[in-house]
């Protein structure tokens, strides 16, 4: 796994890369919580794919080590457009004509916006605990989007616990994870981008049913039954409106399926990407 940086629309995009470039490409899109980035979301999952796929995982603009432009959108839909342009530019720079997409939470909504914008550039799409469907904001997600109103390390520790059903699944102590993420979230540019992104309602990420039914691509939708940030009814809604979608709900699992059910999800995803089912 290597760390790289390329220019995309006048700013630098940081991304993780692994696997043989001659193989089909899978692009992993991270979620939108405080401190989210490619490393925190995907570094433990990438090895499950990189033997057979060329894998890219960018820090989406507004997060992580990707540049944080001064001139930022005023709306959540503007941010989504900016990230669509970023991913397409990354593909162009790396010479990737067509790719598979895997999107977690906000990254799932972005995956659908990418398909809506450039359907010919994408093959198979997996959505994991995806935003962009139809669900009511929960108390947990409202705490997340308002984190910087009282950005304490204890508040971040609570959020981290709430993201999973069983915190032992994280494989290390909550305090260690929180300390690492807290340094990230308190970077001024990260805070500025997060507050600007969530200055409007998360509901703006929703993809209209009229758009969903026009996406003929195969979709694998997975969700944790105990997810309290994006509740499973959102994925049920997506499965009902996407014409070629299948849905798998994992019991005893929260928002981070790629961490809590890593082996099971990797097996499902590999079968899906090879058209085994």
Write the layout of secondary structure elements.
Blueprint: E1 2-8, E2 11-18, E3 25-29, H1 38-42, E4 54-58, H2 76-93, E5 99-104, H3 106-117, E6 122-128, H4 139-145, H5 153-162, H6 174-185, H7 188-197, H8 209-212, E7 219-224, H9 233-241, E8 245-250, H10 257-260, H11 262-273
Helix pairs in contact: 2-3, 5-6
Describe the structure.
The chain is 37% helix and 18% strand. The chain is built from 11 helices and 8 strands. Strands 1-2-4-3-5-6-7-8 form an 8-stranded mixed β-sheet, sandwiched between helices.
Helix proportion range: 25-40%
* Count of helical stretches: 11
Quaternary assembly? single chain
Q: How do the helices and strands follow one another from N- to C-terminus?
A: EEEHEHEHEHHHHHEHEHH
The radius of gyration is 17 Å
Termini gap: 29 Å
Q: Which CATH top level class fits?
A: Alpha Beta
Q: Low-confidence parts, pLDDT < 50 over ≥5 residues?
A: none
Q: From the 3D structure, determine the CATH topology.
A: Rossmann fold
Shape: globular
CATH architectural name = 3-Layer(aba) Sandwich
Number of strand elements: 8
**Please, what is the CATH homologous superfamily?**
Alpha/Beta hydrolase fold, catalytic domain
* Structural class by sheet pairing and helices: alpha/beta
β-strand percent reads 15-25%
Strand order of the largest sheet: 1-2-4-3-5-6-7-8
């Amino acid at each position: 796994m290597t760390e790289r940086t390329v220019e995309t629309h006048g700013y630098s995009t940081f991304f993780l890369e692994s696997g043989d470039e001659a193989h089909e490409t899978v692009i992993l899109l991270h979620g939108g919580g405080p401190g989210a980035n490619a490393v925190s979301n995907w570094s433990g999952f990438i090895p499950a794919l990189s033997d057979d796929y060329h894998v890219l995982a960018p820090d989406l603009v507004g997060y992580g080590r990707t540049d944080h432009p001064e001139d930022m959108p005023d709306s959540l839909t503007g941010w989504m457009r900016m990230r669509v342009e970023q991913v397409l530019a990354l593909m162009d720079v790396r010479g990737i004509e067509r790719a598979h997409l895997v999107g977690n939470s906000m990254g799932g909504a972005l995956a659908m916006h990418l398909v809506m914008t450039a359907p010919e550039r994408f093959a198979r799409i997996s959505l994991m605990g995806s935003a962009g469907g139809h669900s009511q904001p929960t108390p947990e997600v409202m705490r997340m989007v308002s984190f910087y109103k009282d950005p304490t390390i204890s508040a971040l520790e609570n959020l981290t616990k709430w993201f999973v059903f069983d915190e032992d699944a994280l494989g290390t102590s909550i305090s260690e994870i929180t300390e690492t993420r807290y340094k990230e979230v308190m970077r001024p540019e990260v805070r500025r981008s997060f507050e600007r992104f969530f200055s409007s309602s998360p509901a703006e990420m929703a993809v209209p049913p009229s758009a969903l039914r026009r996406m003929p691509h195969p979709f694998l939708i997975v969700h944790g039954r105990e997810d309290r940030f994006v509740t499973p009814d959102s994925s049920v809604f997506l499965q009902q409106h996407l014409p070629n979608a299948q849905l798998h709900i994992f019991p005893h699992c929260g928002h981070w399926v790629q961490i809590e059910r890593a082996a099971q999800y990797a097996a499902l995803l590999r079968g899906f990407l090879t058209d085994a089912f």
